[in-house]
Specification:
This protein is of the alpha+beta class. 36% of the residues lie in helices and 24% in strands. Strands 1-2-3-4-5 form a five-stranded mixed sheet, sandwiched between helices. The protein starts with a strand and ends with a helix.
Length: 156
């Protein structure tokens, strides 16, 4: 079952994010607290949305996403920030069900696209995504400014 997350799910969402960080070889990278996530998902100006996948009432996966915008299409889109399925639930269609759910949201909202990033070493995920019709965007390089560099840029 896929369902929208509620404020009562914040602890499990944070735990799933931590488990994803461990899988992505960054076990100490998660700085977001439960309060941070609550504000981001359910505060006065939500920044993101999340859905949980459950089997027999237990959360076994999640997708955390937000809206973006294509100036060329003149329409919104979904950017999938995190997709994670616990190891014991892999191979049971949970990941596909989460992606299908988000694609349906994009279609219902008349969005023009649904996109995400994948680590280049994660060949199982890349193969899975390609099998669903996703196309690699190799001509684009993701750029990021954070931490001290962000502060310096903000000062001009």
């Amino acid at each position: 079952m896929i369902r929208p997350a509620t404020p009562a799910d914040i602890a499990v969402i944070r735990q799933l994010i931590v488990e994803l960080a461990v899988y992505e070889r960054e076990p100490d990278a998660v700085k977001a607290s439960e309060a941070d996530l609550h504000e981001a998902l359910f505060g006065d100006r939500p920044l993101a949305e999340a859905v949980l996948a459950e089997i027999a009432g237990e959360a076994v996966g999640m997708a955390l996403f937000f809206s973006n915008f294509s100036t060329w299409a003149g329409k919104g889109g979904i950017y999938l920030e995190d997709l994670f399925v616990r190891p014991q639930a892999r191979g049971q269609g949970v990941g596909k069900a989460l992606l299908v759910h988000l694609a349906a949201i994009a279609v219902a909202r008349d969005y023009s696209r649904f996109e995400w990033s994948v680590l280049d070493w994660n060949t199982p995920a890349i193969g899975f995504y390609k099998g669903l019709g996703a196309v690699m965007q190799d001509e684009w390089t993701k750029m990021r400014v954070e931490g001290d560099a962000l502060a310096r840029l903000a000062r001009g």
